[in-house]
Amino acid sequence: MEDYSFSMFPSETFLDVTIYQYGWEQCSPLHSFGPFVRNHYLFHYILSGTGRLLPVAVDGVKRETYHLGAGQGFLITPGVVNTYCADKYNPWKYVWIEFDGLRAPEYLEKAGLSAGQPIFNASNIKIGEQVRDELMYIAAHSEASAPHLIGHLYLFLDALISSSASRREGKTGQLRDFYIQEAVHFIEKNYHRELSVEELADICKLNRSYFSKIFKEFTDCTPQEFIIRYRLAKAADQMKLTNDSIGEISAKCGYPNQLHFSRAFKKRYGVSPREWRVQNRVSVRR
Fold first, then answer.
1. Residue pair 21/8 in contact by the 8 Å Cβ criterion
2. Widest distance between CA atoms in the chain
3. Where in the chain is the domain with CATH 2.60.120.280?
4. Of 196, 194, 279, 195, which is closest to residue 236 (Cα–Cα)?
5. Which of 22, 109, 134, 245 is most buried, by CB atoms within 10 Å?
């Protein structure tokens, strides 16, 4: 009898938010995952049973061990070592989603979730159940179109923000948002060639220093870091969905030197492009 479901999202490079993987699992007693570092955000909603999110250091401060049960959730943030483990006698069943994007940090900030505060508790039980329902919907509809699933990702994020006991009011800045969207659109159209921060600032008619400042505030990374992440994400998509050689993909994604591409890819994803391609042609349990 199946006790888990795992699906990978056929990425079409949605910029604001996108899905990478999703599924559900009824864990066996003491089943654990980690210690491991993620490249994207990973959210688990506990359907039944109990388990633990084990302590890691965040900014040099060691976190407590979180004992969690049904109706709660926990967030794994990129670049942070995490381990989580099912209870020995009442192992948890959870539904999970791995996602990221330009606006993902903003939405999670509004929900009050971060590396230092990774636990979701619902202040509104009814809306909290919508978090569960949207995740279960996504997990059960892997055959749906990419835009359809992205729509339900937004509904999940809306329910997460609306029901979170740690909810915060987000920052506003419509003009800033316009500038950043203009820059991101330009990157999307020109990522295959050499780009500079000066060129992006000129496109937005802004001073380079001011542009870099608001870009980092909005995306939580520098413009150059964003370009690198975007190129590597496009390369990962092509390695997963095409039969092009790694050298061809490297050149198409702005890396005429394949060695430089391999180094950047391994720094970002933890494995070489060739290893990543092999790993992502098969389903991996989470």
1. yes
2. 61
3. 4-163
4. 279
5. 22
Strands 4-8 and 18-26: antiparallel
Q: Residue 225 above 80 pLDDT?
A: yes
> Residue 29 gets which letter from DSSP?
T
Q: Which of 78, 161, 80, 156 is nearest to 122 (CA)?
A: 161
Residue 211: phi, psi to the nearest 5? -60, -45
Average of pLDDT values for 133-148? 93
Give the number of residues written for the chain. Answer: 286
CATH architecture, range 4-163: Sandwich (2.60)
Q: Reading across the β-sheet that carries 50-53, which strands appear in turn?
A: 32-37, 81-86, 50-53, 66-69
Place of tokens 């203009």: 182
Q: Give me the pLDDT at residue 203, please.
A: 87
The dihedrals phi and psi of 18, each to the nearest 5 degrees, come to: -145, 160
Q: How far apart are CA 276 and CA 236, in angstroms?
A: 8
The CA–CA distances, whole Å, from 199 to 47, 135, 142, 191, 275 equal: 49, 40, 40, 12, 34
Q: pLDDT grade, residue 10 (50/70/90)?
A: low
Ranges in the chain annotated CATH 1.10.10.60? 174-277
Q: Looking at the whole model, is its pTM more than 0.85?
A: no
Please give the mean pLDDT across all residues of the chain.
86
The token duo for 33 is 């995952």
Rounded to 5°, the CA angle 159-15-165 comes to 20
Q: What is the architecture, at CATH level 2, of domain 174-277?
A: Orthogonal Bundle (1.10)
